[in-house]
């Protein structure tokens, strides 16, 4: 996601910079008074700033949502793996204890036979 996010952010920044440059150049060459041109440039700059803030907010929310989804999925998977490992451990532990007890009885029986 970071690679795709970097591409998207770069494209967005390039588009905004291009749009800003185009607007400024268009205004500078327009036949108006300097005061009026400066006001239009300021207004357009504020509009672009607001658009950038909105896009940043949207992207930020998407990233937060994705992080939450990934984090939740990871926690669920980790919990599932932990339960599976614990269940397997308990199962094999019981089998080993049982087989060890059987083996101990067999050894005891063999020793008793040897004593006779």
Automatic annotation (TrEMBL):
It comes from the Bacteria. It holds the Pfam family YtxH. Signal peptide: none annotated. The chain crosses the membrane at residues 12-30. Keywords: Membrane, Transmembrane, Transmembrane helix. PANTHER family: GENERAL STRESS PROTEIN. This is Gas vesicle protein. It comes from Chryseobacterium rhizoplanae.
């Amino acid at each position: 996601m970071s690679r795709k996010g970097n591409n998207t952010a770069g494209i967005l920044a390039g588009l905004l910079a291009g749009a800003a440059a185009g607007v400024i150049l268009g205004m500078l060459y327009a036949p108006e008074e300097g005061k009026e041109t400066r006001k239009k440039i300021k207004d357009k700059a504020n509009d672009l700033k607001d658009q950038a803030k909105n896009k940043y907010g949207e992207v930020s929310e998407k990233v937060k949502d994705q992080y939450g989804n990934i984090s939740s999925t990871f926690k669920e998977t980790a919990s599932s793996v932990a339960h599976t490992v614990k269940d397997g451990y308990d199962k094999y532990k019981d089998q080993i204890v049982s087989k060890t007890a059987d083996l101990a009885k067999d050894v005891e029986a063999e020793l008793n036979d040897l004593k006779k």
